[in-house]
Amino acid sequence: MTTIMEQLHSWMKSKENEHLEFKEAKNGFDSDKLTKYCCALANEGGGHIILGVSDKQPRIIVGSKACSNLEKIKSDLITRLHLRIDVNEIYVKNHRVVIVTVPSRPIGVPIQYEKIYWMRRGEELVSMTPDMLKRIFYEGEPDFSAQICSQARFEDLDLEAIKHFREMWMRKSGNGALKNVSDAKLLRDIEVIVDKGVTYAALILFGKRSALRKFLAQAEVIFEYRSSNITGPAQQRIEYTQGFFSFDNELWERINLRNDLQHFQDGLFIWDIPTFNEKAIREAILNAVSHRDYREAGSIWVKQFPRKIIIASPGGFPSGINPSNMLWKQQPRNRRIADVFNKCGLVERAGQGADRIFEESIRQGKPLPDFAHTDEHEVVLTLDGQIQDENFLKFLEKIGQERLASFTTEDFLVIDLVHREQPIPSTPSELKIRLKHLIDLGIIECLGRGRGTQYLLCQQYYVLTKRSGIYTRKRGLDKETNKALLLKHIRSNAKMGSKFNELHQVLPSLSRDQIKQLLKELKTQGLIQLTGSTKASLWYPGI
């Protein structure tokens, strides 16, 4: 179990973010300012304020005289913010550190102090924007797609769209009895029609064009094809202002009309990979339909280019979701719609389904899904269809399709990170677990220990791609060869002695700890000896 001291040292290594704030506060900290920071942290999901620690990295503990009366501070904060905020102190080598723990605001309720809803913008405390406040207030409202459209009637729904959904549900469930259920009963069974009337989910999924124009005109998907990024009229534009189940297949077919095949060869075999993966594109469109904010006036846009597709949907991410946690945290904005998609097999669960998009992109050697242009007003997803590394595809094929089918999303992410020579993040912890699993399978290799640990794809990848020399360089020389190089350098400088920094220059790819271990082994063998015990110490050949 992590102690508060261990937690403090972990925080000190972390960057400041919306959940963590450091202040030196050596001689004190203004009570009003502390309240504003607590207000801002609560509005952004809760977190910690650490007083008595420098805010610049590498951080040091300087001690603080702030909050001398802890009980009074806690009482004042509760009175001002109506939140139970904990304030505790610990001593580290006689330096006092104050830790203020702030809970998240209640769902749908922003916190204010002095009639201002505070948030942080870099080092500043500022008032929350109207858009951010609106999103918070919306959190407390019920699922929009489950609400009743009082003027809508069953006659406003498209029977062909209902038929299409029925066939999909039968195919997924294997329940042939659904064929004999009336349309009205079928929609009641999936709760898009209830005793009080027709829900907005029914209109969004099954509504006729005339009904959507009348009751929910923004529930449309606009498709455009452009041959380049040059502004001006699109080569093709189609507006789908109708229930989703009446155009879902047609939309994909339009995209597929311009879905070029990319060729690459593996020995005598020639592979064709489509620029746009059907599973990934369909999943991205499903996400846009089930997670957009239908209270916003904008439409969903699907913009196709020769090598990329951009899908934009109004409303920004649902509360608590962002690009860094979207694969592991689910918060469907329109749960009734997501549940219907789940029933008929369009999605595997009533969640975000982003994992499928990431998996398919990695499987086909394409760039990861890009959310760089997303903001508070809309989610913008760019899917680049250009294959980046044919050799990586060959490597995945050698792993085997049966084996790949058992891989988790985390497995694919870890392999992709190692392939792109990116560090493996500590969050979520599952990535580290899967990394060990892939090492055990021999798909990834581990070099070194501790902070200097590096990872690379196994030797088979470099053999397949005819780059064995690169593997040897990355892998480095074996231990005995490394020891021989160190010994050779020490012997060639026998008169003057060798400093540690010089030995690090001999093997720059190794960490300091790895070199120390090699020197220790050479010393144990009696081949070298050390004179001195400071940074000026020197290594000499053994006697």
Short key terms for the protein model shown above:
alpha+beta, 543 residues, four-stranded mixed sheet, five-stranded mixed sheet, 21 helices, 19 strands, single chain
Word description of this protein:
- It is a single chain.
- With 543 residues, the chain is an alpha+beta fold.
- It has 21 helices and 19 strands.
- It has helices spanning 4-13, 31-43, 70-81, 130-139, 159-173, 183-189, 200-206, 209-215, 248-257, 278-291, 335-343, 354-363, 390-399, 401-405, 409-419, 429-440, 459-464, 468-475, 479-492, 500-506, 512-524; strands at 20-23, 47-51, 86-92, 95-102, 118-121, 124-127, 193-194, 197-198, 221-225, 236-240, 261-266, 269-274, 300-304, 308-314, 378-384, 444-447, 454-457, 528-531, 538-541.
- The protein has a five-stranded mixed beta sheet with strand order 10-9-13-14-15, covered by helices on one side. Strands 1-2-4-3 form a four-stranded mixed beta sheet, sandwiched between helices. A two-stranded antiparallel ribbon has the order 5-6.
- The protein is flat.
- The two termini are 49 Å apart.
Q: Which regions have little confidence, pLDDT < 50, spanning 5+ residues?
A: none
β-strand percent reads 15-25%
Helical amount? 25-40%
| Count of individual helical segments | 21
The Cα radius of gyration reads 30 Å
Mean pLDDT: 89
Assign the structural class, choosing from mainly alpha, mainly beta, alpha/beta, alpha+beta, or little secondary structure: alpha+beta
Q: What shape does the CA trace take? A: flat
